[in-house]
């Protein structure tokens, strides 16, 4: 099996499994499950994606692109053991002991044409899934220099293959520790021209990011057991939005724009102290502008809503 074939085979056939501990057959790195370690699935996705696999540069590898990558490297040897000592030394030298700033964007995506909501079936290796696929919201971490809205759109396309347009803010949370992590829950709908259920067909081919995605109504949601969710956010948020108990607030506000600029700046800087200077004044603006939606969340559960943290 070649490097690309291993990548393709694992992403298609094994992301719904917990995976085992062991060495990567490509670079010999030891991979383990559990907090503080890197699983083999995460390692393979991050370190061994076939070159030029994402041919169209849209941020995820389609079935066509994966097939092309696997075919183009059919003659390449899977294992490359030459000069492992130099490789290990390079890996050690690349370890970054700083704590880069992180922020997360979550999405509640509703399709107006039929009132259904979009859910992701997370891969078994996703933290919080307990070694089995679980349902959750489209969500992801902000990339360096990216805004929360940009991250939300990118991660939703990657995990569900549905292009969306964020319409408003449902909740914004600040972790009151030295990390000062921001988590925003945005309301979104399929992008213009994509509301037709025949057009917004969600992801059905698994990869390292998710097993798939689906549109559900509240009756569908009620049929799922609580253990089938990564965190119980969909059964909390979807009914709240549907009933009008949780109403999206406008993103066209100076406080939100300032937060977006600050997150983009912090995720692209090497200055660990910048978050302590920049976040507090911006958060004060957010609290004043979105008083009912802004909360400090020091634990894994946000106050009042029972919202689980990423």
Question: Care to give the gist of this entry?
Answer:
The protein is an alpha+beta fold. 31% of the residues lie in helices and 19% in strands.
Describe it.
- There is one protein chain.
- The protein has 310 residues and is α+β, with helices and mostly antiparallel strands.
- Helices cover 31% and strands 19% of the residues.
- The chain has helices at 3-13, 40-47, 63-72, 84-93, 148-160, 218-222, 234-243, 254-266, 274-289; strands spanning 22-23, 30-31, 103-111, 116-122, 134-136, 139-141, 164-174, 182-190, 210-216, 294-296, 301-302, 307-308.
- A hairpin with a 6-residue loop joins strand 1 and strand 2.
- The longest helix has 16 residues, at 274-289.
- It starts with a helix and ends with a strand.
Give the biggest beta sheet: 8 strands, mixed
Class based on secondary structure composition and strand pairing = alpha+beta
Whole-Å distance between the termini? 35 Å
Number of helices: 9
Classify the beta-strand content into a percent band.
15-25%
Q: State the helicity in percent bands.
A: 25-40%
On the 0 to 100 scale, the average pLDDT is: 82
Number of extended strands: 12
- The SSE order reads HEEHHHEEEEHEEEHHHHEEE
* Unreliable stretches: 75-82, 298-304, 306-310
Radius of gyration: 20 Å
Q: What shape does the CA trace take?
A: globular
Sequence-ordered SSE layout with sheet pairings:
Elements lengths: L2 H11 L8 E2 L6 E2 L8 H8 L15 H10 L11 H10 L9 E9 L4 E7 L11 E3 L2 E3 L6 H13 L3 E11 L7 E9 L19 E7 L1 H5 L11 H10 L10 H13 L7 H16 L4 E3 L4 E2 L4 E2 L2
Parallel strand pairs: 3-8, 7-10
Antiparallel strand pairs: 1-2, 3-4, 3-6, 4-5, 4-9, 7-8, 11-12
